[in-house]
Amino acid sequence: MDIIKLFFVGIIGAIISYLEPVWNPMIILGLVFLADIAAGILVDIFRNDDRIRLKKVLLSLIFLAMYLSIIASTFVIGDRMGDVDESLFFVKTLTYIFLAFYVSNTLRNICILFPTNRVFAFLYHWFGLQIVKRMPELYNFIFGKQDDNK
Fold first, then answer.
1. Other Cβ atoms within 10 Å of 46 Cβ, number
2. Could you tell me the residue ranges of all domains in the chain?
3. What pTM was computed for the model?
4. What is the dihedral of CA 144, 136, 64, 73, to 10 degrees?
5. Cα(94)–Cα(112) distance, rounded to whole angstroms?
6. Which residues lie closer than 8 Å to 139 by C-beta, 6 or more apart?
7. What is the DSSP annotation of 95-132?
8. With contact defined as beta carbons under 8 Å apart, do 29 and 100 qualify?
């Protein structure tokens, strides 16, 4: 039984050491995820008078796992093709994009918690990509609406 434990610890250790260059973006993404999920739970409890939904938390964890696997696979593919610097740049870019969505959602939840706080409202308006609503084609692409004028 101990040999099986040692085998799995060795495999996990090898994977973690191989992914060490992208470990910091993964940790940052995890921390922002925790803030987002905490804000979502607080909104459910205090504003929606609802209970914590396990399905919602599990779906969020699936999205986090998907984001982390995209980051890890991007690095692995870049490393195997000999483009480590380029893959690290792409990993950073992806991390900033994922962070933007997590922070935007966190700010939206905080605005729901504190509806009279103008600082959070300004940050959400500025950071929440509210300018997208002024660009019809991008808005339609993001929210899946069809333009009938074409």
1. 11
2. 21-143
3. 0.72
4. 90
5. 27
6. 132, 133, 145
7. HHHHHHHHHHHHHHHHHHH-TT-HHHHHHHHHHTTGGG
8. no
Distance CA 13, CA 10 (A): 5
Would you say the C-alpha torsion 40, 43, 46, 48 has a positive or negative sign? negative
Tens-digit pLDDT profile for the chain (150 aa)? 788 999 999 999 988 888 888 889 989 999 999 998 888 888 888 877 777 777 878 888 898 899 989 999 999 999 999 988 999 998 888 888 888 888 888 888 888 888 888 888 888 877 766 555 555 665 676 667 655 554
- Amino acid at site 17: S
CB neighbours of residue 83 within 10 Å: 13
